[in-house]
Known about the structure:
Monooxygenase, Methylamine Dehydrogenase, Chain H, four-stranded antiparallel β-sheet, 10 helices, 29% strand, disordered N terminus, WD40_PAC1, FBXW2
Amino acid sequence: MSEASIIQPYGLASSLQPSGVAGCSHVPMEKVAFEGWLESISATFVTLNDQERNQSLDHLISLSGAAQLRHLSNGLETLLKRDFLRLLPLELAFYLLHWLDPQTLLTCCLVCKQWNKVINSCPEVWQSVCRELGWRIDEAIQDAPHWKGVYLKAKLRMTQLKEQEAFETSSLIGHSARVYALYYKDGLLCTGSDDLSAKLWDVRTGQCIYGIQTHTCATVKFDEQKLVTGSFDNTVACWEWSSGSKIQQFRGHTGAVFSVDYNDELDVLVSGSADFMVKIWALSAGACLNTLTGHTEWVTKVLLQKSEVESMMHSPGDYILLSADKYEIKVWPLGREINCKCLKTLSVSADRSISLQPRLQFDGRYIVCSSDLGVYQWDFASFEILRGRKTVPKKPF
C-alpha cells in the first residue's frame, strides 16, 4: 500500500473497507503489519488540515458498519460528555457550584436529574444566593429546597416590583378629608384623617370594621381592643374600638405628635413630637413619667422593642426605645426604671449632609432606616453600620 493512497481524503485504500461491503473481500492483516499500517496512517493524518481530517473521517464513517458506529458513539460520549458533577466528590462539586451565579445554577438544574439532585442537596449554595439578596439566614435550617424556594419567591417578587405587577390597586372609600396616618397589622389597616376620624379596614375585603370620631391624626397604632393616636393638636389619645370612647388623653407636648408606640406589659406609651422631645407615659393612668431630651430636630419616629442580643450596654430581654429625627437615631434603655440616659446616637453623616426618613425598623438585632440616599442597617450588638444600600438617581429625560 502506497503512502499516496493513504492521504487521499476520499480515496482510502480498499483494505479499509469493512467486511460485508459488496464487491470487496476481507483478508485479515498480520498484527505486526496492521500496527505498522496504523502508525503510518496516524502519522499522515496528523499532518492534514482540519478540512482534510473531516473529509477523511466522513469517508471512514461511510465505510463503517453498525458495530463500528456503535463503538464510535460510545467513545465520543466518554470524550465529549464527561459529567464532572457525577464524577467529582460531592465536596468538590459543592465548591465549584459556589462560584456560579443564581441564574446559572437554575439553568444547571435543568441539565439532568443527577445535576438537579446534586444542586438541590447543597443548602450552602442557596443560602449564599439568598444572603446576596440581603436575606437573613437561619443556620438551623439546612434544607436546600427551602432556601431555593426562598430565593425563587424573592426573585419573583423583585421582578414583579420592577415591572409594576406586584400590587393590585384598590380604594378604601370612607374619609372626607386628607388621610395622613396609616398603620397595617395582620391584614388590618388603620387610617387617621383630617376629617377627625379613624377607621379600621379589612384589607382583603375592603370593608370598614370600625369608625370612630377622633382628633386630627398624625400617627396611629392599634391592637384588638384599642387605638392610640398622635395628633397635630399636640396631644396623644387612647380610644376603645368597640365603643369609640376616649379611654385616656396624654397632654404635655408643645408640638405635633408624629409617632407613638406602646407596650401593655410595661404599661408604657412613648411619643415623639415636633417640640424635639420624647415623652414616656403611663399607658393606663395617662401621667407623664419622663421627658427625654437631646434631639435638635422634630422627632418623627419612636419604637419600643426587646433586645435580642447582648453588648456592653444592654442584655437580651431589655426593652429598648429608639427615637429618630431628621439626622440622628437615639437609643435609650427602657426597663422597669423609667429614668434613662441615651446609650448611643447613630447617624450616617457627621456633617448632617444625609437626611434620615421616618422609616425606622428594629427587630431586636438590627436597626434599619431609610435616608434620602438609600437604606442603612446597623448591628445592634456593636452599633456598627453593616451595610448601606444607596439608590441610583434616575437620569433626566
